Prior knowledge:
The chain is 59% helix and 4% strand. It has 24 helices and 6 strands. α4 (63-86) packs parallel to α7 and α10 packs across α14 (259-287). Its EC number is 1.14.13.227.
Amino acid sequence: MATQKSKTRTRKLPLKQxxxxxxxxxxxxxxxxxxxxxxxxxxxxxxxxxxWNGWEDPFRLTVDAYYKYQAEKDKxxxxxxxxxxxxxxxxxxxDASYLNALKIFIQGVTPLEYAAHRHFAFLARYLExxxxxxxxxxxxxxxxxxxxxxIHTISNYNKYYGGFHSWTTQKDRVWYLSVPKSFFDxxxxxxxxxFLIAISFSFEYLLTxxxxxxxxxxxxxxxxxxxxxxxxxxxxxxxxxxxxGLEAIKFLLEQDEGxxxxxxxxxxxxxxxxxxxxxxxxxxxxxxxxxxxxxxKEAFELYFEDQMLGGLFPDLEFYGxxxxxxxxxxxxxxxxxxxxxxxxxxxxxxxxxxTTQTPTAEKMEWLSSAYPESFDEYYRPTWEKHARIEADxxxxxxxxxxxxxxxxxxxMAFTEPDDPTRLSLRHxxxxxxxxxxxxxxxxxxxxxxxxxxxxxxxxxxxxxQGNCGGPSVPEVLEWYGLQEGDNGEYKGSxxxxxxxxxxxxxxxxxxxxx
Length: 514
C-alpha cells in the first residue's frame, strides 16, 4: 500500500515548468474579437515580433513566491521604521539640512514610482505575449510597493520638519518638478515598446544605480536609516527590473533585424532624457548631503562609464547597437553638472519646496578635492562671493523667471561642453516659431519630434499665461502649496531653528533676502 501511495503522490513541478503554466499556458487565442482589436498598440511603432514566446524571464518568479518574498522585505523595513521612530531618530541625523534632499526625492521620485505602476499595469494588459504581460504585472506591483514604502518612510519626518506636506500637489505644479514629470509623461505617451526602452532600459538599466546605490549610502551615512532601508529594499527589485530591461531589449533585437535602427534611435533619445533628469540627483549628492559618501563624478564613472559603456555596450555590439548618440557630451559634463544644477536650485529656491544654502568652507574643500579640475577655478569664486554677501546680512536670489529648455525643462544655465564660462543655447525653427533647447542632445530630440515637444507644459510659460494662481510671486507660491519656511534660505529657517533648539546650539542668524 505504501508503495502505491508514493506512486500516486503529486509530483512538485520544477520552477521553469510552474512558471510556464502560470504564463504561456494561461494564454489563448481570441475567438470573438480580432487579435488587432484585442492588442491595438503593438504594431504602429514599426517593431516586428515573430514569436512572443521568445521572451525569457530569467527570474521566473511566481505570484506566490513574489508576495512571500516582498512580505519578508516589508517586515524588515517596518521594523526599522518602528525602531527609528521610537528612538527619536529624527534627532540623530547629521543635520536638518539633509532633509532638503529627501524633499526633492519624495516630490520628484516617488510620483514616478506611481506613474510606473500605472503604465506597467497598462503593458500587463496590452502586450501580446503572456510572459512579458506577467513580467509587467510583477513590475507594476513592485512600483506601487515602492511608492507606498517611500511615503510611509518619509512621513515620519513630516511630524517634526517642514516642507513635506503638499508634495502630491507640488509634483504637478512646481517648476523643477516638471523635469522628472515631463520625462515620464513623455515616456507614457510613447508606444509600449518605446516605453520599455525608455524606462526599463535607458532609465532603470543604464542610470538607476546612480540614484539607488550612492544616494542611499549617503542616507545611511547621514543617519537616515529608514531611507537607507527602503532604498536597499527597492534596489533588489531594481536589480530585477534591470535584468528584465536587458531581456526586453535583447528580445526586441532578436525578433527582427528591422527593429535595430528603431531601438538605436530610442536609446539615443532616452539616454539623454534620463541623463538630464539625473542632474537633480547630481546636485543632491554633491551639495545636499552634509556628510558626503561619493561624488557625482565618481558614481558616474563607476556605474555608467565602467559598468555600462565598458561592460554592457560591447555585448550589444553583437546586435548592431552602439553607445548613445550624445554620450560624449555627458562624459564631458561630469566635472560641471552637479555645480551648475545646484546653482540653479540655489538661485531660484525662493520658489522651491525646499531650502538651500551656500556651501560651508568644509564643503568647499571636499568639492575641491572631488573636482580638482573645475571647482576652484570656476565655482569656488562664486560661492565665496555669496558667503561674503551673507556675512553682511544679505542673501542673493534670482527673482526673475528663467528661460526653460523646451525638452528637458531645466532652466538654461548649463554651459558649453568645451567652455564652462559660456552658456549653452540652441535654437530650432518649427512652423514659424523659434524654440530653445539647452544642449545638442535636447536640440536633436526636439527636431526629431517637434510636433510633440511644442506641446510641452513649461512652468514659466504657464505663469506668463496666467495659469498659476496669479501674476505675482506670492500668488504663484500659494498656488504651489508652499507654506512659510518651506522655501528660500536654510540658515534661519524653521527647520534650522528647531534643530538648533533640540540640540542646544546657538540659533543661526536669520538670513535676509536681497
